[in-house]
Automatic annotation (TrEMBL), chains A, B, C, D:
Keywords, in A-Z order: Oxidoreductase
TM region positions: none
Keyword Oxidoreductase belongs to the record: yes
Species in which this protein is naturally found: Pseudomonas chlororaphis
Domain Gfo/Idh/MocA-like oxidoreductase N-terminal residue range list: 5-130
Name listed for the protein in its UniProt record: 1-carboxy-3-chloro-3,4-dihydroxycyclo hexa-1,5-diene dehydrogenase
Length: 371, 371, 371, 371
């Protein structure tokens, strides 16, 4: 592969985030291969053209299948609604093209399973957009754990809460449909589960409770028509990890006061570390023998940070985590993979979420590999 | 009852804390009855005499049964090791004297059950030392919940972690014996469970995991002899409350970085509130429509605070929560009970802890009233 | 001196705080001399009797001069309004009795000067109630500085702000009269100046600005009659210390959001430490080579703490700082003085405040020893 | 002006930051004019070519004068070392081209004065890179103040501290030369002064102290040769604002524990607000009648934020503030100026810093318009 030609499907918020990330990666990293923004696809031809021009893509397509077939495209990036991830990724894999797909991998565990099998068969690089893991301070947390600085891991307590559905007048959307991977657990909690696996590895068994607090929501903003909601607003679960650690996870999209509260605390025999994504550039750490927690602020000594700023404390933002994700993907395409989430791993995240749903439904412990 | 004659059994840290609290209550509150420090008992006659003198008690006994029989004593306060709570409280109740017992109520659920039955039969006031609930800012939290300011309660996430057993060289003590109500759940977690019940009422069902991280500890500090430890170092549980709320509790005595981290977050349809006992005088609150959490600092507008300071921000300490507990007890003796924990309630806390232990042992959901 | 007989003048909030502190000191410390609560004085004979009884004093006086003359009294504690400190302390010193006086020492620098001269002449122990300095975590801060752990001290940035006069409808009181040592600088700022001296020693020169924001206030709550206010609401100053450090201090009693915000940050060539009295039991510390601040939570390893609790994180409150102040005073009476504020030191605090007022009035740098 | 052709001088960290910002502005904003990256200049021809290619510029120049003369360039962006700002900006203004210059405007107040006069004479848009002001949460703070929500402003307390010169072995660099606008006040403090003016307007008078803590530093890292340092390491000042507010500012580059601590607290008769750039997306606010501070987290309701993320809590980073600065500049070129810092305002910032230096040197109050 001499040159990476990006083919991006989707022009919504995540589509633009991808475009920005490719541009920024080109400017800030010394990439292994040249990068071109080869093609952009949107079902609306005019929008495809406009966005292609303003985001710097060479070609615009209104048919995603033509984008996949485009010979200039040798990496397919998918940012469309969740239910389209499956057909698009399968089509790309069928012609042997690497795929970079937004999370969640699919809208059912069965689809996710087919996708990881197809990826394995195709033998190409795949990545799924769990960009929070590419935060340099999260990489530091992972290294602290892997180097054994926390000793044997004892517990993981995690939460991902926001408040955007707290108001019962917040309307129905595809996020409220299980068939589109809706609900607090699938929408937010999956980031937390992916993070737990990224940091501590496999989960063996789970138990859970799930609540739907507002069972009716307006069909659209201000609409009198109500739709019945079946997905979860709030989930709590117990986890038993393969490494012997135990813990809890909670996910809610109606918890007042939180906007992006992906937080966790990991304790081991030699220390405790804590993170809250509402303070994206900070980690709190207490090692055995120290009196209290110390605040670490991200800086150029962390992997990836220096590409954005030469000085500590000049904070990275959400979009730059996407740029770091893109960099790891491009390195993987050059045979130097980092810790990015491939289809196999993304399926494992989906399977874990499915186990939690099953455990909540049947009110019993579920072994994650039951499914 | 014209005058309250306190008979205090035990001269350890909690014995002194009681003595201080009675003195301070006398000085700062307008009590319904005069209070005298009638008698103090310790098995060591010399220590009993010395402490009685320095703490201002009129009489010293080396035999607790004589203290209970002492006609000047009409309130028996028990601060002895946990396994003595049962015989002492039962003896006091048998002669119809009110009892103020340190937590835990007993070292087995069966004992606790007998004690609450005896209390009911005796028809006297009983109280158990869950002094953290008497924190004025906790009373504010309770009122916020009861007045419906958080709406319907959705979730409770609580933790009580300390680090005093984090070092594997921290030696065995009675706290490491199940027969003395040892283990992180019984020692620390019971405060959290009592708090959860104080704020949200009955728990219907639980599920849990429990870990013993260090299965051997020195028999005493620096001793080469090791003792095998069977009690829990760390417990996580899921809770389903009778009011429909769900949540998690965690308790650990080996989590580096924490000294007195009894913390919880309660969310409802109209708001979220959060507390951490390491910042004893603060509450964080976010109401629907507000952007973020607001910090409330305890002040004289809260019940009980003004007795200690006329100005907000002049913080109350741990010992003053004990004074507030004593005040509620003395009001209860005068027929004006507040929200103190009586034997019935303390038994319910023990039963909840027992249900969590059972759920962890059998790895299944347990209905709290199974036991 | 075989036995310390306390004679306490004043039964307001500070009077009661003294009574509690003497009681608690007796119970928690191993004191060098026995302590008796010998006599209590209040101009109102009935109040004197009632308080004496409820606080455990042996005798009640309605004439403070008789209290000073009482042969059972060999320590005179003064908690009356500020303008009475002078005559009472001078009378006690005149008969050679040690004095424990609430802050401020006096209502004018001239009075303060006479009092320190009289104390020196009498050769007795004197103490002034700057109890915030007796906070164990402040003692830790002082030791960190004295041991050189911060290196050469570079800067002090301090503030003492509250909000109790923020509302322009907050009425006039003696606190609004310069002749009673009123104003934000004298009332609050003097604590901060005393703290700066306690931690860093002499200040050589100052420059300042002073503001009276609300120049009229109701004569009493809800009163239509307005009184003109001349004292400062808010003061900022620059300081040059004798040790070469420089810094700023600010004091306000109308800063919304603060209740007891006596905060400072001290930086040196080897580290920085920070404190905020709204979190009384915490210190933040960053040493050279460390990435960020570490939170230290008070515990029994700090001087004085263990008297109140055997475990870290069981927080001390405002009243317990008073008990620690009393302990140091009682040790000083036994010839083992700690770092308590005597009349000489309290005069130096008053002189520093006077220099700041002069610098603000004349808008120039003032050498502190100009006065 | 039909199309904006950017001519960028300098390829260091700030050069790349500009390039990224122009790209991102193009992608995320609906700009009034099309934008082209016309030319890039660096004295090293090869570096100029390489950077032009990787950052997407059409032409590369090794002579900045040719860039200014380039007819495709109609906006000159200057990111070279400080002493070159003057000749470059003067040359661009001489041919009537708008200038976007990094801070500080110049290395002497005299140069700055000439530059603002030239800008006025040329009648073109000028901007100086005080990008911190373009933080959406800072714009919110400014609006809160301007709408009168804090009432009359009483005080400003500000600080900008970092620790990158804390180690005495941190070597000499141009930042240590007054002739290159070095020292903590010029390098860091000028951001704080610009912020104070942005939020509260003109400062009338100042008083200050200045310290050089380490008067010798290695000529380069690890070098035994020492250079004498004359610029300030730490400055404290008092300010009197034209609007009647008073306050303090401090700036240090050797304060352990801080990485980007541009923090301030502004209080008024109706409220207090606080900001710390180490938590770039947060503001703390307490309004009259509220008990404590509330945390506001940036979200799409704030000006500019939505361009980067549709959801609150998905934090902006340092580089995105630069993009926001570029957007305001481009709007200003289209006649719709926002609150960007032009040469006139940047000169006022320099004059204020010069007044502080003079006040420190002469140890007296200085009227800012003395100079």
């Amino acid at each position: 592969m001499r040159e990476i030609g990006i083919g991006l499907i989707g022009t919504g918020f995540m589509g633009r985030a991808h475009a920005l990330a490719f541009h920024q990666a080109k400017a800030v990293f010394d990439l292994p291969h040249p990068l071109t923004l080869a093609a952009l696809a949107d079902a609306d031809p005019q929008r495809a053209r406009q966005c292609a021009q303003s985001w710097g893509f060479e070609t615009a397509h209104s048919d995603w299948q033509r984008l996949i077939a485009d010979p200039k495209v040798n990496l397919v990036a998918i940012t469309t609604p969740n239910h389209l991830h499956f057909p698009m990724a399968m089509a790309a894999l069928a012609v042997g093209k690497p795929v970079y797909c937004e999370k969640p991998l699919a809208v059912s565990l069965d689809q996710a399973d087919q996708m990881r099998q197809a990826a394995k068969a195709a033998g190409v690089v795949t990545r799924v957009g769990y960009n929070y893991q590419h935060n340099p301070i999260i990489q530091l947390a992972r290294e602290i754990i892997l180097r054994g600085e926390l000793g044997s891991i004892v517990s993981f307590q995690g939460e991902f809460s926001e408040d955007f559905m707290a108001n019962p007048a917040s309307p129905w959307s595809w996020r409220c449909e299980a068939a589109h991977a809706g609900g607090a657990l699938a929408d937010l909690g999956s980031h937390l589960l992916a993070m737990a696996r990224h940091l501590l590895g496999d989960v063996e068994a789970v138990c859970a409770v799930s609540q739907t607090v507002h069972t009716q929501r307006p069909a659209s903003a201000g609409n009198r028509e109500q739709r019945t909601i079946a997905v979860d607003d709030h989930v709590h679960a117990l986890l038993r990890f393969a490494n012997g650690a135990c813990g809890t996870v909670s996910s809610s999209w109606l918890k007042h006061g939180y906007k992006n509260h992906l937080a966790f605390e990991i304790s081991g025999t030699l220390g405790t570390l804590a993170f809250d994504q509402e303070r994206l550039n900070e980690l709190r750490l207490c090692r055995a023998g120290e009196t209290g927690f110390q605040r670490l602020l991200a800086g150029p000594d962390l992997p990836g940070y220096a590409a954005f700023s030469p000085a500590a404390g000049h904070q990275l933002g959400y979009n730059e985590l996407k740029t770091l994700e893109v960099q790891e993907l491009l390195m993987a395409l050059a045979g130097e993979a980092g810790h990015g989430t491939d289809f196999e791993e993304a399926w494992a995240v989906e399977r874990l979420a499915a186990a939690i749903r099953l455990a909540a439904r049947e009110q019993r412990w579920v072994n994650v590999d039951e499914q």
